[in-house]
Structure formats: structure tokens, C-alpha cells
From TrEMBL:
Domain of life: Eukaryota
Disulphide bridges, residue numbers: 29-93, 73-83, 156-220, 169-230, 200-210
Gene source species: Haliaeetus albicilla (White-tailed sea-eagle)
Chain ranges of the SRCR domain: 5-105, 131-231
Gene3D superfamilies listed in its UniProt record: SRCR-like domain
Residue ranges of the TM segments: 244-267
Protein's name in the database: WC11 protein
GO CC terms: membrane
Keywords per UniProt: Disulfide bond, Membrane, Repeat, Signal, Transmembrane, Transmembrane helix
PROSITE patterns found in the cross-reference section: SRCR_1 (PS00420), SRCR_2 (PS50287)
Keyword Repressor on entry: no
């Protein structure tokens, strides 16, 4: 139902060409691949108006499905998605040497220089460390922000629903979602809007695994920033606003009540002993 295109590399404009289909990223075979196809792929990705096919690459084992083969784009084709191809097949390429690798002649515009956080900018970081909730009482509620291309950015609330919030809360490590909030419920963010029209199934491990339109194209504003409330709070820590979390407050109340009960029992025992004397 939803499709997207990407180049699997750090700069986003070179590497293995992949398509998102049926909820999964998969490769595209190089059979019958033409320069017109490369041109349209680079344009679709905002990586210039042309590119080249890469050869003599160190091929490894194919991971995941290989969705498409025999993609044939012509000179008059205006979009990559209008190009004819063989039917969708998760085993289109039997040999990893058939996977298409391309290098586009352009680069996506760089964001202004922003101090980089040590972890989100590292390739060793987990998906959980590339998302955060901002503006809530703790890290399990607030405006959803994701780390991409060297900076934190927000998520547009177009089509934002409980399935998307479920994935965000899972990625945050905060249990099931309680609510999916719209219209900058925790305040407007700053910087880029990285994702629009997020469409999760609810079973993905991270928002990065969901289909979404690349953001920051001007169609969304920060007054439409998406947010979540998750069911769990960080355990054993103070909330961002300096208040104790709910489990700690409950423990304190129960402790006080237990102390009062013990004091009453002790007083009653002393009174009974005095009466016997």
C-alpha cells in the first residue's frame, strides 16, 4: 500500500538502491537497469539529476527481500514509480551481484552546523537512542523527536495515530501507548520536521522501520508536531520537572501508612499492658 525509495549509505545519495514495500525494505536487481532509471531514482531522492551504476563492489550475502527486477524507465518517464518492471517478488535476485548500487551526482543540502550529540551521531547507537520525547513530565511523554542527518527534528501529526504512538513508545522503552497527541500538544519544536504521513502497522521496532514521507518540504509546520503519552515512567529516577515519579510517590505513601499503623498497634499494646497492671 505504501512505497518509498532509499540509498543505503550514510550520505543517502549512494549505495544499494532499496524500495520499501509490504512493510519491508528490500533491494532492486540490476537486470535491464538503464541510466534513465538511475536518473529518476536520484531525482526521486533529491540527489541530483543523474548518476552512475557501480561495479566491482565487495558483495556480501543478500539480507532481506529483493523486491524488484527488470525496472525499465524510458526517457519520457517522469517518475520512478511509473517505470514498468517485473512483478513484485521477494526473491527477485538470486545472486547478490545482481543488486543495484548507484552513485548520484548530487548531494542533499546539508543542515546548518549544529553541535552533534555523541551517541545519536554514532553508527553504534541503537534505534532507541535515536528518538526522544520532549516537553513532558518524563522521558516517556512529550513531543516526538527523531535523530536524522546530524540533528534532532520533529514528526508531523498528519495520519499520526495509536499504531504510530505504539511504535514510538516501544522504541522509547516506555511500554504501551496511552494516547497519540496532535497539534503540538507539548509545545512546538524547532529545526527540521523529518517525517510526515507516518504509517506504522504497530508491530515495528522503531519509527525508522515504518513507511513515511521525507519531511521538511514545507507541507507541515511545527504547530502540527506529533506527541505521545506512554504507559510506563522511567523507574528509579526523577522526572524532568524535578518531581518524583508515580511509583515512588505510592511507595512513600504506603510506607507512611505502615508506620502509622505500627505506631497505633504499639500504643494499643502499651495501653493494654498498663490496664492489666
Amino acid at each position: 500500500e505504501f512505497m518509498a525509495l532509499r540509498l543505503e549509505n550514510s550520505d543517502g545519495c549512494s549505495g544499494r538502491l532499496q524500495v520499501f514495500y509490504n512493510g519491508t525494505w528490500g533491494s532492486i536487481c540490476s537486470n535491464s537497469m538503464t541510466l534513465d532509471t538511475v536518473l529518476l531514482a536520484c531525482k526521486e531522492l533529491g540527489c541530483g539529476d543523474g548518476g552512475s551504476l557501480e561495479t566491482q563492489l565487495p558483495y556480501g550475502r543478500v539480507s532481506g527481500p529483493t523486491w524488484l527486477d527488470k525496472v525499465r524507465c524510458g526517457e519520457k518517464t517522469s517518475s520512478f514509480w511509473q517505470c514498468p518492471s517485473a512483478p513484485w517478488n521477494p526473491q527477485s535476485c538470486e545472486d547478490p551481484r545482481e543488486e543495484i548500487h548507484i552513485t548520484c551526482n548530487g548531494r542533499r543540502p546539508e543542515m546548518p552546523s549544529i553541535p552533534l550529540a555523541p551517541c545519536p551521531n554514532s553508527t553504534r547507537c541503537t534505534d532507541r537512542e535515536k528518538i526522544r520525547a520532549v516537553g513532558g513530565e518524563d522521558r516517556c511523554s512529550g513531543r516526538v523527536e527523531v535523530w536524522h542527518r546530524g540533528s534532532w527534528g520533529t514528526v508531523c501529526d498528519d495520519s499520526w495515530d495509536m499504531r504510530d504512538a505504539e511504535v514510538a513508545c516501544r522504541q522509547l522503552g516506555c511500554g504501551p501507548a496511552v494516547s497519540a497527541l496532535h497539534e503540538a500538544a507539548f509545545g512546538e519544536g524547532t529545526g527540521p520536521i523529518w517525517l510526515e504521513q507516518v504509517e506504522c502497522r504497530g508491530t515495528e521496532l522503531s519509527l525508522q522501520d515504518c513507511w513515511a514521507r521525507p519531511g521538511d518540504g514545507g507541507a507541515c509546520r511545527h504547530k502540527e508536531d506529533a506527541a505521545v503519552n506512554c504507559s510506563d515512567s522511567p523507574q528509579g529516577s526523577l522526572s524532568g520537572s524535578g518531581r518524583f515519579s508515580v511509583p515512588i510517590i505510592i511507595c512513600i505513601i504506603l510506607g507512611v501508612l505502615l508506620c502509622l499503623l505500627l505506631a497505633l498497634l504499639a500504643g494499643q499494646a502499651l495501653s493494654t499492658r498498663a490496664g492489666r497492671r
